[in-house]
């Protein structure tokens, strides 16, 4: 075998041999022969789809042409042979630096230099991480933060939830699935298949009792195979709900129509609210089945909820299926339990629905969970915690949380009790869903729709921190832009399951109201007591100690009401005795033993006397402190005025009866109603009074707004007058300025942290400072140049021009713009100013008020008496008439004209 030439293996073919058959050609199409000629591709193949370049335009609004944003895959450095990615992320490249953020948690993972261009598939290292570019994203998408949320929040869910297995879509039907459509007939394409029509079940023999329903509100049964709604959708003013987009196999869709017994009483905004709530709890608007109704006080949240529950308990969009809801739980403050029971009886009577009210006398929860007589249970937040184990034994289909802002934190016991019921359909009713901060707002959202906005930590990094940072006065341009984009995205996400309407929709239903912001000049003794504390050693200690600062704030608030409150035996604020012992010697004994030094009490004395003697109206007086209510009560007793009082010591079972007695009585029987804002500030209708006084002010604007809405509600017949008292130049006015700043953010974050730790040292100094000038500090901060005579020509100062900034300001508006032209500089400067003006807290809401300095009224009054010149008297009379028209309150106008009136300035706004 040695020397024998090599022979190729037999299985290797000689491709050059001519006797071999030709290779088969690749088949171009299914009908082309294997060995036939190839067809021309242009005849059968579709043209290539043009794919747009995802890279953003080279021009960037921030001034950086290399600013880019990418979605990436990332992992830690590893020497493994088979590597895997650790997660998804977002890479932001700006000014030559790249920042990697995790998509799931929103946490910053790495940062480093990044100067080279990146395309899809590019690999790079950054801050100890390996990255691979997945795609390029737009700056708008990055700024909105939507890629940091879970998939539930990115795209709304189209199909309705809670559908039986084997459902089929309704895409083959010809009819529309929109709301307010007439019932479908066989000609509509739904119900024309005999296989889908279900035979009706005969009535059970011996079933004699029938639900007492009016024949005029229920559609009579027919032999037609078409789905038949419970109520006639073709009747005038019929309220139809939206149809689901899918249906179980073998079933049909039927219209859901609100019972005319209720719908005929619903106003336009209430009809819209019922439809919104229905779509939310049926899963038609987002992944979850929860909703937040954030209507302001007085818009009828209770009636809308009753209409929703009654509709769900009697109807189902799936024809001949059981009602959507069988058992409903309403959780509310203890003081509103009886109010809910009365509302159900008012709108549905006792014969239509069974309502179980849980109270200390009726604790047998099994009557509701196991029995069939009750469909609705009303219970207080405190009692729910004690019976939650018994509640778990039954099945609750929907939970309504009234005044849901009480569920502030995830560790709240009431929230834990509701969550233990495992009910997916949850609705929060609250006129103030943003009472404190975005953290509590997230808790409310996660309560009604769990997981919709991802984890709490990711929400804080993605939304809360950028938005709060953008509200700071020293926020940079990029922080302002990012915060604004994140806020808009958050509003867009929450609008799918939260509805908010203001009291403006009631203007055509309710009588007009006038609001007076009354700045009371402190008496000499009151100002001396204020100054004595600010010049004492305790003030210097408080500036460096958070707890001491909070105690000092409470002391100054008492002085604003009356210095005599410091000596009261009842100390509601738990002020340490050491502080009181150091403060009381600074104030004269005669001031501590009498309320005569209280400027607010003097104004209130004059006001209630004029109301009682010149009108037939009644008044509500609100305070945050029981000590202050005690002081006002002594004043009314000394004047022999009759009154009612509701505070924390009033038993919950007696509160509604007290309110009804006041509303029915005359002025002689019950002239005043003393109300604690903390105990009875929500859910009470005090329409028996047409005037209300807020004697002191709260850090939280929502608390005052709720109290003010007690009289301006459905059933009010008289024009309403609202008076808000505060000491001019004192702590009251500083708190009010912060209230306006919060409300001036156009329904943005309400930061209600009344903690000294949230103030800098300079802010604390300004907070405690007593401004004893004759002018109003709040009006001065506005920069308003009006004559303070109540004219409507008040306007905000126009934006400062660039030339003025260059001459008068120490800032450098040209910094960072290089050698740009003058036009570009002006445009850039105006854009920055407009953003800052839109996001920074301003007092511009006060420009809606008329600004009145009462000294002009007193001067006009004196001149009209002394002047004999006919022409001059005529001119003064015109001014006086104009100011009287601005005040729009004869009783209050007479008080302002008093020679010794303690009112130093007034801001007034009327809806008439």
UniProtKB/TrEMBL annotation:
An annotated Gene Ontology molecular function: hydrolase activity
GO BP annotation list: double-strand break repair via homologous recombination; reciprocal meiotic recombination
Domain Helicase C-terminal residue range list: 606-765
Polar residues biased stretches: 216-227
Gene3D superfamilies given in the database record: P-loop containing nucleotide triphosphate hydrolases (3.40.50.300), SWI2/SNF2 ATPases, N-terminal domain (1.20.120.850), Tandem AAA-ATPase domain (3.40.50.10810)
InterPro entries: Helicase_ATP-bd, Helicase_C-like, P-loop_NTPase, SNF2-like_sf, SNF2/RAD54-like_C, SNF2_N, SNF2_RAD54_helicase_repair
GO cellular component: nucleus
CDD domains: DEXHc_RAD54, SF2_C_SNF
Key word Hydrolase present: yes
Domain Helicase ATP-binding: 282-451
Keyword tags: ATP-binding, Hydrolase, Nucleotide-binding
Region of interest: Disordered: 1-65, 153-198, 216-236
Protein name: DNA repair and recombination protein RAD26
Organism from which the protein derives: Karstenula rhodostoma CBS 690.94
Source taxonomy: Eukaryota, Fungi, Dikarya, Ascomycota, Pezizomycotina
């Amino acid at each position: 075998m040695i020397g024998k030439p090599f022979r190729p293996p037999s299985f290797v073919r000689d491709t050059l041999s001519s006797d071999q058959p030709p290779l088969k050609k690749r088949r171009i199409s299914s009908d082309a022969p294997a060995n036939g000629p190839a067809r021309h591709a242009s005849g059968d193949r579709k043209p290539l789809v043009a794919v747009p370049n995802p890279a953003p335009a080279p021009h960037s609004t921030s001034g950086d042409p290399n600013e880019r944003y990418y979605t990436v895959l990332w992992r830690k450095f590893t020497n493994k042979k088979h590597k895997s990615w650790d997660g998804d992320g977002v890479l932001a490249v700006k000014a030559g630096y790249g920042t990697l953020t995790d998509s799931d948690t929103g946490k910053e993972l790495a940062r480093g230099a990044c100067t080279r261009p990146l395309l899809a598939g590019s690999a790079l290292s950054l801050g100890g991480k390996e990255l691979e570019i997945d795609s390029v994203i737009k700056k708008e998408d990055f700024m909105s933060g939507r890629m940091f949320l879970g998939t539930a929040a990115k795209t709304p869910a189209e199909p309705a939830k809670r559908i039986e297995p084997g459902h089929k879509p309704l895409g083959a039907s010809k009819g529309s699935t929109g709301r307010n459509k007439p019932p479908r007939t066989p000609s509509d394409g739904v119900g024309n298949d005999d296989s889908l029509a279900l035979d009706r079940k005969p009535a059970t023999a011996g079933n004699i009792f029938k639900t007492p329903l009016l024949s005029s509100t229920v559609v009579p049964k027919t032999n037609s195979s078409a789905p038949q709604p419970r109520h006639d959708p073709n009747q005038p003013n019929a309220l139809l709900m939206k149809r689901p987009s899918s249906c179980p196999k073998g079933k049909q869709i039927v219209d859901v129509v609100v019972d005319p017994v209720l719908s005929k009483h619903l106003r336009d905004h209430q009809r819209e609210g019922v439809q919104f709530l229905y779509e939310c709890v049926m899963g038609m608007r987002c992944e979850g089945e929860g909703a937040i109704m954030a209507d302001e006080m007085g818009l009828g949240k209770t009636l809308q909820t009753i209409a929703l529950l009654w509709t769900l308990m009697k109807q189902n969009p799936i024809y001949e299926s059981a009602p959507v809801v069988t058992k409903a739980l309403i959780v509310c403050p203890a003081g509103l339990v009886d109010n809910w029971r009365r509302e159900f009886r008012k709108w549905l009577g006792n014969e239509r629905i069974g309502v179980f009210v849980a109270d200390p006398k009726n604790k047998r929860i099994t009557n509701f969970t196991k029995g069939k007589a009750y469909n609705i249970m009303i219970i207080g937040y405190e009692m729910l915690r004690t019976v939650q184990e018994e509640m778990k034994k039954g099945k609750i289909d929907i939970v309504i949380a009234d005044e849901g802002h009480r569920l502030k934190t995830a560790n709240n016991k009431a929230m834990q009790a509701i969550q233990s019921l495992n009910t997916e359909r949850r609705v929060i009713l609250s006129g103030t869903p943003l009472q404190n901060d975005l953290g509590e707002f997230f808790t409310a959202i996660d309560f009604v729709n769990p997981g919709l906005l991802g984890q709490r930590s990711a929400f804080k990094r993605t939304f809360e921190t950028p938005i709060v940072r953008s509200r700071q006065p020293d926020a940079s341009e990029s922080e302002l832009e990012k915060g604004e984009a994140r806020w808009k995205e958050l509003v867009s996400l929450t609008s799918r399951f939260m509805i908010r309407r203001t009291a403006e929709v009631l203007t055509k239903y309710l009588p007009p109201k006038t609001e007076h912001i009354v700045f009371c000049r402190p008496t000499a003794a009151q100002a001396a007591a204020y100054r004595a504390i600010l010049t004492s050693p305790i003030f210097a200690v408080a500036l460096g100690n958070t707890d001491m600062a909070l105690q000092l704030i409470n002391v100054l608030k008492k002085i604003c009401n009356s210095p005599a409150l410091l000596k009261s035996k009842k100390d509601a604020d738990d002020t340490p005795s050491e502080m009181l012992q150091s403060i009381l010697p600074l104030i004269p004994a005669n001031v501590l033993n009498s309320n005569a030094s209280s400027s607010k009490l003097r104004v209130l004395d004059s006001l209630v006397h004029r109301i009682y003697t010149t009108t037939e109206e009644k008044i509500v007086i609100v305070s945050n402190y029981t000590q202050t209510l005690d002081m006002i009560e002594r004043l009314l007793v000394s004047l022999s005025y009759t009154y009612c009082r509701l505070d924390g010591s009033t038993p919950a079972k007696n509160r509604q009866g007290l309110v009804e007695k006041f509303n029915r009585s005359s002025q002689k029987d019950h002239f005043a109603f003393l109300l604690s804002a903390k105990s009875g500030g929500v859910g009470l209708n005090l329409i028996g009074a047409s005037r209300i006084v807020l004697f002191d002010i709260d850090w939280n604007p929502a608390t005052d707004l709720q109290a003010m809405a007690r009289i301006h509600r459905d059933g009010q017949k008289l024009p309403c007058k609202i008076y808000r008292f505060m000491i001019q130049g004192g702590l009251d006015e500083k708190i009010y300025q912060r209230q306006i700043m919060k409300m001036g953010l156009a329904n943005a974050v309400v930061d209600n942290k009344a903690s000294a730790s949230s103030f800098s040292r300079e802010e604390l100094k300004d907070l405690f400072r007593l401004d004893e000038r004759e002018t109003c500090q709040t009006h001065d901060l506005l920069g308003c140049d009006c004559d303070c005579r109540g004219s409507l020509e008040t306007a905000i100062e126009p934006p400062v021009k660039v030339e003025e900034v260059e001459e008068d300001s120490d800032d450098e508006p040209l910094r960072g713009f290089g050698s740009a032209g003058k036009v570009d500089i002006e445009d850039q400067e105006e854009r920055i100013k407009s953003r800052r003006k839109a996001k920074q807290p301003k007092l511009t809401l006060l420009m809606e008020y008329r600004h009145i300095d009462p000294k002009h009224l007193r001067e006009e009054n004196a001149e009209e008496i002394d002047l004999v010149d006919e022409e001059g008297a005529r001119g003064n009379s015109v001014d006086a008439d104009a100011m009287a028209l601005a005040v729009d309150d004869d009783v209050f106008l007479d008080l302002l004209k008093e020679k010794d009136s303690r009112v130093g300035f007034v801001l007034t706004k009327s809806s008439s």
